[in-house]
Amino acid sequence: MDSQIITLLGFGLVAGIRHGFDIDHIAAITDIVSSQSKNSLALLYATLYALGHGIMVIALGTVLLAIGQKIPQYWDTLFGKFIGITLIFLGFYVLFSIFRNRQNFKLKSKWMLVFDAISFGYHKLLHNFRASHHHPKVKSEKYGIVSVTGIGMIHGVGAETPTQIGAFLVLLGIDNTVTAISFLLFFVLGIFISNLAVAAFSLYGYKKVLENHRIYMGVGIATAIFSIALGISFLV
């Protein structure tokens, strides 16, 4: 095998591992895993999350390879501006959540925050129109096979994640179809490896982190600042 191809595939694997450690995936996997009473079920759900994530990445990569240079260039600019505004908004939302909830603050991925915002807006709308609705006394997040796979697929979109954007740009620059598909598969393999590593940490180390809430809040603040800075870079 050509050394250039080996280097390219190695980069795909490393980029996938790095992408799997993005804060969105850590937040989602730790929440899924820590919600389970059995370690075996937690590992199964983490595997399904990684599988859903990989399926979406492969699907997006295949579409990009199919359409290639047919994407209008002005779409890149518009999409980048939209991503930047979203990242800035979500970063400030995390800071607001930390200030508001303090000891009850819970780190969540950007997609989880979006769903929370939609749920909050829907709830306020029902109140404004005085519509009848149910208020559960205890709010519990439950996961199943379909839901964890779906969450993985949603996070697999990863459009605002620099590592995935970079990997897709490399993908578009590969002339050989077989090499391009191999690169994509190695990228997904890296994601799978790091996602399972996060799941293992969640099972055996996550509770210790939660015991020191200052560290946990520090991670949340750092995540918010990084999101805001990244969003500004997209706009600039």
Q: What can you see in these coordinates?
A:
The protein has 236 residues and is an all-alpha fold. It is built from ten helices and no strands. The protein is globular and about 60 Å long. It starts with a helix and ends with a helix. The model has no long low-confidence stretch (mean pLDDT 76).
Short description:
80% of the residues lie in helices and 0% in strands. With 236 residues, the chain is an all-alpha fold.
Key descriptive features of the protein:
mainly alpha, 10 helices, globular, 236 residues
Topology overview:
Blueprint: H1 3-20, H2 23-34, H3 39-67, H4 73-101, H5 110-128, H6 145-157, H7 162-172, H8 177-204, H9 206-211, H10 213-235
Helix pairs in contact: 1-7, 1-8, 2-3, 2-8, 3-6, 3-8, 4-10, 7-8
Rg over CA atoms, rounded to whole Å, is 19 Å
Average pLDDT, all residues: 76
Helical residues, percent: over 70%
Structural class: mainly alpha
Number of helical regions = 10
Overall shape: globular
Oligomeric state of shown chains: single chain
In the predicted model, the low-confidence regions spanning at least 5 consecutive residues are none
What is the straight-line distance between the termini? Answer: 41 Å
Largest sheet: none
Percent strand: under 5%
Task: Please trace the helix and strand order, writing H or E for each element.
Answer: HHHHHHHHHH
Tally the beta strands: 0
